[in-house]
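Service request form, structural biology core

Requester: graduate student, group of Dr. S.
Request type: structure prediction, single chain
Budget code: on file
Notes: please return the result as structure tokens.

Sequence provided:
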Amino acid sequence: MIAVRTAPTLNRTLLGVAIFIASESVFFLAIVLAYVAYRDAGLATARANLDVGRTAIFSVALFASSGTMALAARTRSRFWLAATMVLGAIFLTGQGAEYARLLSEGIGPGSALFGTTFFTLTGLHGLHVLAGLVALSALFAATQRRARAVHPVAWEAVGLYWHFVDAVWVVVFSVVYLGTIL
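Core staff response, request fulfilled:
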């Protein structure tokens, strides 16, 4: 008897998410490179005004959310999914507080080169976190209604996007915040 192996199939949903993440990675790379190119002009402002320690705390919440998302996807658990959403919301709240503080000090998107590059880079990341929270909420709602009807690929696709958002923040935090103290 001859054994016949079937070719592995490629899930179109995961392929679409992967292509989207790849395109967004190029987009973020361009913005990070622009920030780095103009960083020296605003480095003194960044050093004087960015709260690296406080932002590190909110960053830990986002980094931890990758772990809770991995647990949620592996176990199909609404508990871990909710934990991921809470950690993401903590991060966004922290970023909002940082923005409010900077704006109150006269540093905004149009105030100077630092403000423009900082708010563009971190603001776009924040929008991606918000989009991720919307996707997490949609997945949570779908599992509330009919948990068994939610395909495993939905958990995987949302998880991939969420891990991407976290990975982008590793780069942004390193370049923007840690780059001011190194």
